[in-house]
Fold each of these.
Amino acid sequence: MTVNLDKLPKFAQKPRIFILTDVLGEPGDSQSLVRYLLYSNEFNTRGICATTSTKLRSSTHPEELRRIITAYGEVVDNLNKHVHPSCQYPSAASLLSLVTSGPKIYGKKALKEPHSEGAQRLLAALQESEESLYISVWGGVNTLAQALKHLAETSSPNLAARERAKLRVYSNSDQDDTGAWIRAKYPDVFYIVSVQGWNQYGQGSWLGMNTSAGEGVDSTKVLNPWLNEHIRVGKFGSKTYPEVEFGMEGDTPSFLWLIQNGLSYRDFIDWGGWGGRYVRPQGEADWEDGIDGNHFHDAQDFGVIGVDGKIYTGHKETIWRWRDAVQDDFAARMLWTLTDNFEEAGHPPVVDVNGSTGTDPLILEVKPGETQILAASGTYSADSSTADEHLGYTWILYGDVNGFHSFGMGPEVQLEALDGVVSDTKGGDTAGFPTHTRAQKVKVMVPQLEKHPQTGLVTPDFHILLEVTNRAGIYPIRRYKRIIFSYIREDKPASLKKIPESASDAYQMYGNIDAARPRVDYSQPLNYTPCNWWGGRPKETKK
């Protein structure tokens, strides 16, 4: 088979990411960095900063970050033989230049210390672009606190607010006392975090990444025997991925949601994906100002079918339901480090639904009672000589998004297979979804609008996922397309009448200040109004 790397997935944009990690506080951070590097071709890494935390109070270890990145440099050439030419992996040298240290002191004590190197680099990364900066938090956040404090002290209130509006912080749980300080001091900052009693880490959604408790979740792929066989291999994995002690990679969900797989959509964390699902603590109708909507907390997925066939509901389920997909994909990438031979490994398929490709969702405006046809006939894999040689198709109703299921609505979405090309996924859907259909082409019957007799809520928009599984290699590799069925109705909230059709549209509409959108009048007092996707933005005046 002739290899054509141009047939592999490519990305219109790469999210700008800055990592804060208490590496060597426990083995999980080193593990997370190994995984991150195997996906670093999908990211624009702006900094990797060693920090303190409640487990590592008086030291930081940037040398461990450099050790792992140096080992990555030994396999980066192999990795680049398995990705699109426009999405090559960064060099080890470029990543090493981004390694810094935050303050070597615990929590809020750092606010009395000089501005650390890590805080300087973080602030520079924030100010160098009008695009969002995603802070992937694996430890304490006093480096971020230092940067925000310095920003407030050296900028006008309006300019500081403008810079803070670009932050997207994902901290699995608070690991020092500056997380709560940031949210109280700067409530306009977009902040995802599992909030629970101090040191009650067992309550966080992120435990779904590695939990082995309960009969519903299969723990095989997060324990040392499986990791020894599939991850600790070759001159990269064997040198860098430590043994599991407390739990595998608890911090990893903070960047899993940014992997460009077509499932997660970084402008809507409440839509769910490999990194879990989080929602605002109160509904949009109750907002009095934008700061009410900028903190995102644990959401539940309902009716997840476990490996034991029983039904489970909870916030950890929003992550562990994707475990097979996440771990299989990781193992497939580790295999890339072993060989520069394209045909010795599997690769992500390119998903096409009704001619729509790429990782952005397909949004369909629909009327109650109508029928929509969804066809994936244009989907292909660079590993196959024929379109369906190794591909399986599963259409899924993700009813938890927008509360389609949890509100107790009456109507059900029906998915009907329309062709004879029924996929063989060897066990079917692995994410525990009760409503799914295996076929290349389906018919969707759009439910009638209904009003809940008690709450008055009207049937919300609903999401269909297409999961395409490529089984050409040793490990199945899954990619997705999200299709949003958006009802055409006059009573829809104003903020939902215009849904961005792409990530770049969302940036233009809500996230950043640039020439393509109305300007904020910074000569006037800065107020906040709700918006659809991150909870608050400055009121705008037409230029």
Amino acid sequence: MTIFLLGFITFLIAGITNAIPILSQKVFDEGILKGNINSIILFTAVLIIIYFSRGILNYISDFLLAKTSSKVIADIKTDMIHKTLNMPMSFFDSKSTAYILSRINEANSLSSIFTPTVFSFFSTSISMIGALIFIFSKSILIFIICILFMPLVYIISNSSLSVINKYSKEMFETNAKTNNKIHSTFEGIVTLKQLNQEKNVNKSISKEVFSLAEKTVYQSKTISKSSQLLNVTILIIQTLIIGTIAYLITQGRLQVGDYVSLTQYVGMVYAPITMFQGFKITIQPALAAMSRLNSLIGKTVPDNKGIKVNKIESISLENVSFKYETAHKEILKNVNLDLNTGEKLALIGSNGSGKTTIVKLLLGFYQTYLGNIFINGTELKKINIKDLRDRIGIIPQNIYLFEDTIANNIKIGNTMIKESEFRQKIDLLKTNGILTDLDLNKKIIENGKNLSKGQIQQIAFARAFMKEFDVLIFDEAISNMDQKARQAFKKILSKEFSNKICIFISHDNELSSFINKEFVLASNLNQEDKKEERSR
């Protein structure tokens, strides 16, 4: 409906615009030459009404364009975020968070497609057709001259577009990388200050910023050069045509009043070509963004089909081998492991040996492994991944907290939990010594910046405690807790998780009394790949 209304307004504005030169000629012919004051007043009043009406129509069209632009960009961004969130982990392994965010924000550049310049281009194109018809009716010679110069004007307007498009793409990429570097700098601000490297890092970032600025200046220079060349060319052509009109008037082939209308119509002939350059220049960033965004939007998102899991009673890894896309060697090789309800497994191995990788495979983050992973006798690749993850709870080594209250950060472990059940579980945790020193209404800042590491681990444990999981994974789950919290953790573990499959990843033997099974992993990675594994 909005598109139809915009189309109707476009034709209406074009029709009104085409009437202006004729009415201007009427003021001259019927009013000035004949000395008719009433005609002057009448046609002047009509022109004022037309200008006022055109202004209102332009306002309505600008509003509709802004509304359409906001909706389209919001839809595209929503789709991109949805697809990005559902991408496999391999997608995130090779791209930083800041870089992905910058790529998503490139969707804002699509707003240039819905600017008034674009709308005006279509409006003036319709007016151009009306102008050419009028010129043809008055003088075939002037019509031919107008047509002959149009290819020259188009060639000049089109000459710099490939360069502008190239620089637009380069600017997007440079901007994404610069944002990534700035984001990484602030993430490591403590280490940066400790090493007194502010000056060196600032120098590096400044180099990226000035590189982007240079590309912007060069693009602006190219646009300006092309625009000025086009404007001068059109002014020369219009001057030649005006001279021809004046000559035809002296020869009696045109009336004096025709000069008023024809000079305006000649301007209408070249207006859309001039705007076409502006239109194409304006949408170059949008076209470049669309090309880059398509690399994200066009990616295939894994579906959520598969066999549903009611309860996980057994896990089996048979000759499982796995290599990260960015690694040189396999991190896991021919791993065989069996787990059943009630068993407590300790994964033992040095940093980079693949302990966390096994957990990620069990969660279905990667499905490019060799061998088989069976859940209740069914190959993991055939299982509904979202359903599988609903059955597995994890307290990760790298815990993420949202900028919300502590209570809401705990509830995210089970968004369907009733308030009464939530309070009951919180009371149980506090009775045993977990969360005793935390105000649940406290607002968390920047992933727990205002909390101790031990408090963050308690929140993560409480989050996992909110749901009835079949499998619980503890990745260095108590490494930062104080002695009181550790004792509370072990008490809850023995009471509440006795019938669960539990997997422990730890560098100490504090939880050895709960463990009835061990699996030792030997590292297959070189030093470079070990660093990469630790960073995942």
Amino acid sequence: PGRLVSTGYPLRGDLGNWSREKATQRFGFSADKPVLLVTGGSKGARSINMAILKHLNELLELAHVIHISGSLDWPVVERAAAELPARLKTGYHAMPYSHEMGAALAAADLVLSRAGASTLGEYPFFGLPAVLVPYPYAWRYQKVNADYLAERNAAVILQDELLNSKLPGVLKALLSSKAKLEAMRAAMKSLAHPRAADAIASQLVELAGEQPL
């Protein structure tokens, strides 16, 4: 009674199937630019989607972009992808949802996302630096999540209301600095608990053994 055990966040086993090389080949990216992953969950994050589309052309000059928009904004994102100049289209992979998140996470050098617990649980496994935009209407847990990573130099926090004005500068500063990304990658990787599921299972087995039949 009263015992607390910290195990880390349990991950799907298939996430480990993707190496960086295999993932970049999956998306057909060349090695001349870093890769930015943008994701907002199954329904998406409208403010993030709209900010990315507003600055998409200039971002594609600097990086390849994997954009998982969610279902609600997909028609707008799909139209924007179709209207890109031909020279930029190969560097932009947009989709409403991905069944291969392991590939997207393994290919990325930086991720832009909300700060939900399940999402953030995956980034340390890949050592993936993050720009986090806490959802402003979800109590305060997303801010707490984001603060935890930012305080450990694994993430940068950007407030939702500042997306349109600050996003290009924040992304460009990070994507253009290999040293900064490597430092953030190491900080994020240090937080990983790759055997969290095993630890949880072990605790459950131990607890079950303590109970009378």
